[in-house]
Amino acid sequence: MNVLIVGGGGREHALAYKVASSPVVERLLVAPGNPGCASLERTQVFPQIKADDLAGLLELARNERVDLVVVGPEAPLVAGLAERLHDAGIAVFGPDARGAMLEGSKIWAKELMRKHAIPTAESRTFEDYERAVQYLDHVPLPVVIKADGLAAGKGVTVARERDQAIAVLRRIMLDKAFGEAGRRVLIEDFLSGPEVSVLAICDGKTLLPLPSAQDHKAVYDDDRGPNTGGMGAYCPAPVYTPALARDVDEKILVPIVHALHREQIDYRGVIYAGLMLTKNGPRVLEFNVRFGDPELQALVPRLPGDWVPLLHAAAEGRLETFDSGALVEDQRPSVCVVLTSGGYPGDYRTGYEITGLDDVAATMPDVLLFHAGTARDEAGKLVTAGGRVLNVIAQGNDFAAARARAYEAVEKIHFTDRHVRTDIGRKALDLSA
Ligand code: AMP
Ligand code: GLY
């Protein structure tokens, strides 16, 4: 079969790596892709077709006789890519626009959770700036302020002081920092506890939970500094015990699938629950409608089988009869370290030559390397081209070994202004020790 992957980051290179290695795949297309995807066998990238170019993607899928489209990022799903492809008779792994509201509107998701008693933080919705400010007098600090719509991961602020909360509300509601996405805001109770990413594959009726993972959002060690898209991940998350997993399945995952079904949404794709494990039990902080980045990268070595039959079965609503025994879990933990451009998530420079990848490939064949923000310059040299540049993933018999191996590879890779967190996976080490 022919498969099209939409997107061009580390997550999409990881997906492309898995799909390109599937014996059932004749051709893999990735739009826009990246230099890492371009080097995979039987794979062609289409850098001119961006992930938000719905018409271009539809035309590509039709012209190239694509059988299955796997959508990486949320924005094209929220914009309605899946239904356009369905109309053309093409199977899609990724929900339609209504299903994608789970991520595309935090208020819609909140209301759905409330209606179905899915545990989440208490919150209030505001359209009016003055009312939102008045509400601050009635709630304890800190509060969490969330723009309703997609805001490229920047729409959430934990405000510890009243002045800060007011400044954030002003920026979102009066200055329209996120445009329409900030027309409405949620002011949410502040919760505390460890966070965990729980992902499950869904075909509208049946759920297949994936191994848990832990993201590292802050840019510096010890979770200091501003939030990023993700500085690293490990898999599985030791805090996510089998008992907790059963609890989450029962109280969160099964009810959300049921809730979507009741809304007449035929949800086919990933349900990603960002959870906080509070003293009172797990609470949903957010739902996403796609694989986590970099959680997915950490998951790759953990699920060594062929993913294409699974993605295809979910896209076609056939998970119930899918033989999940085909996906045997490799029990060894994995650690993914993200190499970034110094300055990210603020301003940073790009265009710096990247060296050392060949050395890693030649001397550490067990280590996975995925490209995120890389490009080829005119001379064909690999250069930095984004905030998150590369992902290095290693497995080990325990977290200490996986960490050591990942950082050994990281030290072989060089570019100007390179930044990495040095503590990815350390929490897992502490917890599993
Ligand atoms: P989100 O984009 O909703 O995952 O939020 C980004 C980050 O903000 C989360 O990973 C949490 O660290 C934090 N956060 C979100 N909601 C809450 C909350 N209700 N209480 C405390 N922290 C939160
Ligand atoms: N790693 C967080 C996310 O993908 O949203």
Give a verbal description of the structure:
With 433 residues, this protein is an alpha+beta fold. The protein has four domains: 2-94, Rossmann fold, CATH 3.40.50.20; 128-183, Dna Ligase, domain 1; 195-326, D-amino Acid Aminotransferase, Chain A, domain 1; 334-432, Glycinamide Ribonucleotide Synthetase, Chain A, domain 4 (Alpha-Beta Complex). Helices cover 31% and strands 26% of the residues. The protein has 15 helices and 23 strands. Strands 12, 15, 18, 19, 22 and 23 form a six-stranded antiparallel beta sheet that branches. Strands 3-2-1-4-5 form a five-stranded parallel beta sheet, with helices on both faces. Strand 10 (195-203) and strand 11 form a beta hairpin. The longest helix has 21 residues, at 242-262. It starts with a strand and ends with a helix. The relative contact order is 0.13. The mean pLDDT is 95. The structure holds adenosine monophosphate (AMP) and glycine (GLY). Residues 121, 144, 156, 158, 188-191, 195, 217, 274, 285-286 line the site of adenosine monophosphate. Adenosine monophosphate (AMP) is lined by residues 121, 144, 156, 158, 188-191, 195, 217, 274, 285-286.
